[in-house]
Specification:
Layout (H helix, E strand, L loop, with lengths): L3 E6 L6 H17 L1 H11 L3 E6 L2 H10 L5 E5 L16 H7 L3 E4 L2 H5 L5 H12 L4 E6 L3 H5 L3 H13 L4 H7 L1 E4 L13 H19 L1 H6 L1 E5 L4 H8 L6 E4 L6 H11 L1
Parallel strand pairs: 1-2, 1-8, 2-3, 3-4, 4-5, 5-6, 6-7, 7-8
Helix pairs in contact: 1-2, 1-3, 6-8, 8-10, 12-13
This protein binds 2-phosphoglycolic acid.
2-phosphoglycolic acid (PGA) binds next to strand 8.
Amino acid sequence: MRMKMIAGNWKLNNNQAATRTFVQNLESWFAAEPAGKKAASAAASGKIEIVIAPPFTSIEAARAAKKSEIIQIAAQNVYHESKGAFTGEVSLSMLEEAGCKYAIIGHSERRHVFHEPDEALEKKLIATLESQVLPIFCVGELLEERSSGNTEKVLARQLESAWKSLTSDVVGKMVVIAYEPVWAIGTGQTASDADAEKACDYIRSLAFEKFGIAASDSLRILYGGSVKPENSASLCSQNDIDGLLIGGASLEVESFEKIIETAV
Ligand code: PGA
């Protein structure tokens, strides 16, 4: 049984005050509402993980505001070097110190807006696996790549370049993959359950070919791209989808709660 993950990627949203309010409201829901209590107990028994990824400057506000371990914190990005003349970058030890359990690597906005290449993402993945922080490694095809029938080719290239030097035990236990088709991100155009499942099943088959059955069975694969409370239940119940990475719908605590509710 793979532990589900519901992760909110806040992108460039939520300053410290908004972060504190969000965390307090979410924890009140866990403590007081029947659906929240059910989610909290699923989190306590290891059935689900609830993660938020605030901007760097709001991470400490999230850590300080939370009273329990139900909410885990992710960074939206990281740099592979540990220190030095790398203006604007943040290291893994800084994320550890700030209380991050996860770091998102290779989000489509990092790949396509900030032009991070596969080679840079491989370095980030390897460095993250050498730290206490766990990677949520994102892959996904552009619209033109899907239209030209190249979805699987793109996923294979992105994954194989990132995990070529990794071993089975590391991949199965420590890596979370997020399948996020670029055309579905922030567009309101969610992948169908069948298309999302097909891509996640393909990712698992790549893991099987390279790392074997134990690793591919335990690898957690999330879907992301215009997830909302209206479509989260069916996406989350697909065989190879172990959770959701949510952008826009994770910014309001009520819709994030509704999505959590559909996953437990
Ligand atoms: P979205 O973003 O849910 O707003 O489409 C998802 C993501 O970028 O992770």
